[in-house]
Amino acid sequence: MRVALIINPAASSVTTRARVVIESALASPFQLTTLETTRRGHAEQLARAAVDQGADVVVCLGGDGTLNETANGLAGTTTALAPLPGGSTNVFARTIGVSNDMLDAVGQLLASLQRGSYRRVGLGAVNGRRFVFHVGIGFDAAVVARVEAKSTFWKRLGAGHPLYVASALSTWFRHYDRVHPKMTLSLDSGEEVGGCYWAIVHKTSPYTFLGPRPLVLAPEAGLDSALSLTAFRTLRFTPIISGAASAMRSGRLLRRHPGIIGRSGLDGLTIHCMAPIPYQVDGDHIGDAEHFEIEYEPDVLTLVVP
After folding, report:
1. Does this model's pTM top 0.85?
2. Which of 149, 154, 243, 279 has the fewest beta carbons closer than 10 A?
3. What is the pLDDT of residue 151?
4. Whole-number Å distance between alpha carbons of 44 and 277
């Protein structure tokens, strides 16, 4: 079996020791090629090159952003994607059951490859960019943009999650318009939802993790489902805090709030904004846009699963 290992050396949990352990574990039973990213977007190019060179599996050692790029490079092919936890949160890897402990995750990967544990799944796409677990338009993207401006040093110190919390509070009180709703959502069912401040389109659940705790906004989302939507028509402090408390449990109470819209089983939707608004894909800030075309692409990626 031909295995390509894509490594993001800047990812917060990637160390020299981790690299040596992983390369040693994979080189023994498989024909291994190691590829290293040097810039944003590079993992997608490396994944496509690995496919062209006949790789059966691409192992991704990096954070969720590197994983997203790798998935975009492999989508539409038969080459399988195997995530390892190289970032600070590792949302997707943990969602599919990969251990957040590096050594345990390597053991899981070897066992999965030996027994041929593969699963074909669908992905979401926003304006042509595929996502594996969610796209956020509005508030969370503004938070991510602030975090990315100063994250590398703090993540290396293990302070990634406190940095997100601090940036969320700062963005909430000082850097986000909570008075004028900017979004109108048009769903594939024909329903139109106006007056929204923030929208999240989920491919899987949970939305993210805060330390060991999953934050569940769309409990019905999963690997085998189409898209789910959480749209906020209020950004008042009390419902958001109570919603966050609900998300740390099952997320079901959050869905019952009249100012928070939840929909599931969506094959597509369009979001139009009155002005450019930030968006993030799988935890990476992409930029600002006024119009978003979001769709579900079934049966597009092969995963190696525990």
Report:
1. yes
2. 149
3. 59
4. 25
